[in-house]
Amino acid sequence: MSRRIYWLVPDLASARQVTNDLLLARVTERQIHFVGREGMDLSGLHVANVLQTSDVVRAAQVGLLIGGITGAAAGVAAAVWFPIVGETPQWGIAAVLAVLGGGFGAWASSMIGISTPSGRLRRFEGAIEQGQILMMVDVPQARAKEIEALLKASHPEARFEGEEPNIPAFP
Question: Keywords for this entry (predicted)?
């Protein structure tokens, strides 16, 4: 189980130094993600990707659920009222339409979600717009307190902003 730790750092030099300290503490670069305001130069830092900065994953999950339910309902109606062969309902059409509806719903919703900023990052928008840099560190639960203590001791300019317990494995 991983935890995501949020920190706000005041500038690029501080962000680079924090990265170096984390690398020395055996936190890999792919576990460290940075978000800055639009157009900010974050060269030398591991910039957060679209999965971490948008609502694409949550939107796809909701679309899969709604599309699957809608497809299943349409499939049941088609199986009962419009049987393909004979008078008995063909329930396979319900399963096929549920899968197709879920796939279409996930795809359509993810197209919307990719352009929507992450709800998890909304609380940091003001600080990011003022020029601060958001750092997200994904660490095993057993190391979370150790990493927090390391950063608090070595970087008083950085501000701890909390942690999130449930981090998906893939983003």
Answer: Membrane, Transmembrane, Transmembrane helix
